[in-house]
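Researcher: Here's the sequence for the chain we discussed earlier.
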Amino acid sequence: MWLDPLAAVLSGVYGLILLSVALPFLWYALWVTQDYRRRRAYAAHIATWPDAVLPAARDHYVSLVRAYRAAPFPKPSYRNARDALVMATVLQERIDLAEGRPPATFLASRRRILREAV
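Model: Thanks. This is the structure I predict for it:
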């Protein structure tokens, strides 16, 4: 049966090596894609928002990022600032589309917002 050699490999030293290599890669893949998953969720959330409220909402989220970057210790929550940064980039993409401009890439929008939040 083909499972017997696989079970023997996974139960021995090779299994420990394989496990110690595979788990960090799995963690890294999930960590890298978390912004993409947040972007999709936020884009679905703001899909029904009228275009008139988008700039004010973007300014609010940029101010949250600005407060995180400017605050001495103890800082506001990192998770709130990270989510605010992702939401501000999604709002910027939506504003660009509403104004008829092609939206910048996600990383370019993020760098622009980080420069603005200084």
